[in-house]
Amino acid sequence: MMMNSTSIVYLIALPLAGAVILLLAGRRSDKWGHLLATALCASSFFVGLYQLSLMFNRPSQERPVSQKLFEWISVGTFKIDAGLLLDQLSICFVLLITGVGTLIHIYSISYMAHDPHRRRFFAFLNLFIAAMLLLVLGDSYLNLYVGWEGVGLASYLLIGFWNEKPAYATASKKAFVMNRIGDMGLSFAIMIAFATMGTVSFIGVQAAVEQTSTPVLTGIGIMLLVAAIGKSAQFPLQAWLGDAMAGPTPVSALIHAATMVTAGVYLITRSNFIFDAAPTAQLLVVIVGAITLMFGALIGTAKDDIKKALAASTMSQIGYMILCAGLGPVGYAFAIMHLLTHGFFKAGMFLGAGSVMHGMNDEVNMRKYGALRKAMPITFVTFGLGYLAILGIPPFAGFYSKDMIIETAFNAGGSKGIILGIVTLLGAGITAFYMTRVMILTFTGTPRWDEKAQPHESPWLMWLPMAVLAIGSATSGYLLSSNDSLVKWLSPLFESHEEHHELLPPIIVSALALVMVAIGVAIAFLKYSRREIDAVAPKNVSIFTRIAREDLMQDRLNEAVFMRPGQELTKTLVKTDAVIIDGAVRAVGRLTIATGLSLRRVQNGFVRSYAAFILMGALAMIVAIWVVVQ
Predict the structure, then answer these.
(1) Phi/psi at 299 (nearest 5 deg)?
(2) Which one of 53, 205, 229, 359 is least enclosed by Cβ atoms within 10 Å?
(3) Is the separation of the CB atoms in 371 and 506 below 8 Å?
(4) In this structure, what DSSP letter does residue 449 have?
């Protein structure tokens, strides 16, 4: 049963109003625009808390609420309302988006204080928040698509915010183009759903699944997976995420840790009824997640740029979520749990990286850091709590969420479960290695910074959001897993009728994970703590390190397989257009001109010529009539 509500729209309307006001007011709002944007985002968060309290007071089956805004499209039998749906899944995302978003707004007040375009930056932040909320609140795939594209636009504007630097403008364009590839998948999924089911609403598609053939559902599922791959930077469309670090660091924390890149996980879990009925598409989800979690982890081992190391980590952790979401009803809730805990600790670490950059004159090379724990104690502690959480050290958040994914992978059954379990364990070990490397290069050892650098702790408006996120990193896992609270909360949406098979007891899984983490930490400690770190990355390294530094050659592969052939195809099409199509058009033009020139000779101005033509015409008509009569 679904109830109607008239207040859901305020979740979106508040940040959207902030974006509109700041963009239209222009420089007149420079002095107060950042405060308005932050207040409106916080207001949206409080509306979300209010909605959550209402949901708690209703029976489980009556918790979803909807709101029809207006009739959007009505063409023949194709009728779509602009409507919103707030249920147990979307409220999780609403609180994550607005809660973490508000903290990032507060952080940005100080971080962007000296930027002359700070007001425009906050307008784009509000626009992003509104678009992301529309994405998770839309009650149909078409409404979701509007938010999906709005997020793409806002991320383009934020990644390229400092577009006066050519490299930053290129990075935003790369992210935008690669995301458009994924967006085509969502477009095709919507088209197939309407053509075969006659509806694109979540409720309508779910009701039509049983009457739809498996090949059609597989096609829809694969197209949805393509969309998720593009938006969530999964293999083989993950190459844009590292370059997207060109944007201001708060953008990295908001878009590339807590919100936009998790949209693919939302899409898959929201479409659980399609993937459950399409085993082939579901298997592809698992494969993509497994490959990506290893890709991201391996790339992270060789990055000296602190933000790019965290970006690789994000890619890997979302791979965990995608893999778990592909394991069916038993995995959906655990994927969402890791998404929520990851939102805390990864956003906190990105803000910590921004704090380090703030104290180091925007230097991002970790080889030029060292011993910052003394100069920046609050940043060290808050970043360190996020580090312990991502490693999965008990009782921090990752211990609960990531261990559940590893356990679910092992329990997938048969050789599949063993392979996935080993992959997730290896990912945990490699994560421990490169994240320990980040901690050592940044906060321990001897100072390696320039003599002119004067590292110092960030202002309270920056470290306060970091502290709140650090608390979430320490406690969110326990709160979400205690008494299976999140699993029970989401159970009406992901009802499972499968029999649960336990390959390994949870205590054994946790022990194996901690052993792998300990091995990764020990290797990093031995490699980086017991010898002097060069301020310049050594060039005489193994071929593996060189490949990892170049993102496992993904850009070169894309260039060789897609870009160069695409350029040649474009050149061929241009030549074909010029020679054949344009040539045919030009030939018609030339023929017309030649015909006109020939006919001009007839118009000589002599009466005797015109009389002769009249006579010839009359004789022709007489002959024609005579032939017809005969």
Answers:
(1) -65, -40
(2) 53
(3) no
(4) S
Q: How far apart are CA 245 and CA 175, in angstroms?
A: 10
The Cβ of residue 474 has, within 10 Å, a number of other Cβ atoms equal to: 18
pLDDT exceeds cutoff 70 at 6: no
Q: Which residue has the tokens 């898959």?
A: 268
Q: How many CB atoms lie within 10 A of CB 261?
A: 27
Q: Nearest CA to 106 among 159, 14, 35?
A: 35
Longest distance between any two alpha carbons in the chain, whole Å:
116
Tell me how far apart the alpha carbons of residues 296 and 302 are, in angstroms, rounded to a whole number.
11
Place of tokens 């409106």: 40
User: Does residue 560 surpass a pLDDT of 80?
Assistant: no
The rounded distance, in Å, linking the Cα atoms of 272 and 285 is: 12
- Asked if residues 296 and 316 have their Cβ atoms less than 8 Å apart, the reply is yes
Taking a C-beta distance cutoff of 8 angstroms, is the pair 105, 38 a contact?
yes
Q: What is the secondary structure of 186-225 as a DSSP string? A: HHHHHHHHHHHHS--BHHHHHHHGGGS-HHHHHHHHHHHH
For the chain, state the CA radius of gyration.
30
Residues 6+ apart with CB under 8 A from 426: 294, 297, 516
Q: Tell me the three state secondary structure of residue 174.
A: helix
Q: Which residue type, as a one-letter code, is found at position 180?
A: R
Alpha carbon distance 446, 535 (integer Å): 11
Question: What pLDDT is recorded for position 16?
Answer: 95
Between 385 and 71, the higher pLDDT residue: 385
Phi (first) and psi of residue 73, to 5 degrees:
-130, 135
Count of CB atoms within 10 A of residue 605's CB? 6
First to last CA, the chain: 85
DSSP helix/strand/coil, 390: helix
* CA distances for 583 relative to 208, 247, 591, angstroms: 50, 46, 12
Which tokens sit at 321? 């979520």
- Cα–Cα–Cα angle for 5, 9, 13, rounded to 5 degrees: 160
Helical packing angle, 414-443 and 306-325, nearest 10°: 160
> Exposure of 603 by Cβ count < 10 A (0-12 exposed, 13-18 middle, 19+ buried)?
exposed
Say if pTM beats, i.e. exceeds, 0.85. yes
Cα 484 from chain centroid?
28
Domain ranges of the chain: 278-345+354-494+501-540, 570-629
Q: Which residue blocks in 360-376 are alpha helix, DSSP H?
A: 372-375
- Residue 404: Cβ-neighbour burial (10 angstroms; 0-12, 13-18, 19+): buried
CA distance 514 to 415: 23
**427-465 residue pLDDT tens:** 999 999 999 999 999 998 888 887 777 888 989 999 999
- Within 10 Å of residue 476's Cβ, how many Cβ atoms? 25
CB contact at 8 A, 299 and 312: yes
Kindly report, residue by residue over 344-379, the tens digit of the pLDDT.
999 999 999 999 998 888 888 898 888 899 889 999
E strand residue ranges, 113-233: none
